[in-house]
Amino acid sequence: MDTLELARAGAAAARALLALGPGIKDGALALAAARLREGSGRIFAANEADLAAARAAGLAPPLLKRLTYDEGKLAESLAMLAALARLPDPAGRILEARRLDAGLELRRISCPIGLVALVFESRPDALVQMAGLAIKSGNAIVAKGGREAERTNRELAALLAAAGAEAGLPAGWLSCLETREEVAELLALDRYVDLVIPRGSKQFVRRIQESSRIPVLGHSDGICHLYVHEDADVAMASALALDSKAQYPAACNAAEVLLVHSGIAQRALPAIAAALESASVRLELCPRSLAILGPGPGRSPKGGGDWAVEYLDLVMAVKVVGSLDEAIAHVNEFGSGHTDAIATSSREAARRFMAEVDSASVYWNASTRFADGYRYGLGAELGISTGKLHARGPMGLEGLMTYKWLLEGSGQLVADYASGSRRFEHAELPEERGKRYGGN
Amino acid sequence: MDTLELARAGAAAARALLALGPGIKDGALALAAARLREGSGRIFAANEADLAAARAAGLAPPLLKRLTYDEGKLAESLAMLAALARLPDPAGRILEARRLDAGLELRRISCPIGLVALVFESRPDALVQMAGLAIKSGNAIVAKGGREAERTNRELAALLAAAGAEAGLPAGWLSCLETREEVAELLALDRYVDLVIPRGSKQFVRRIQESSRIPVLGHSDGICHLYVHEDADVAMASALALDSKAQYPAACNAAEVLLVHSGIAQRALPAIAAALESASVRLELCPRSLAILGPGPGRSPKGGGDWAVEYLDLVMAVKVVGSLDEAIAHVNEFGSGHTDAIATSSREAARRFMAEVDSASVYWNASTRFADGYRYGLGAELGISTGKLHARGPMGLEGLMTYKWLLEGSGQLVADYASGSRRFEHAELPEERGKRYGGN
Question: Quick check: is A252 in a domain?
Answer without folding.
Answer: yes
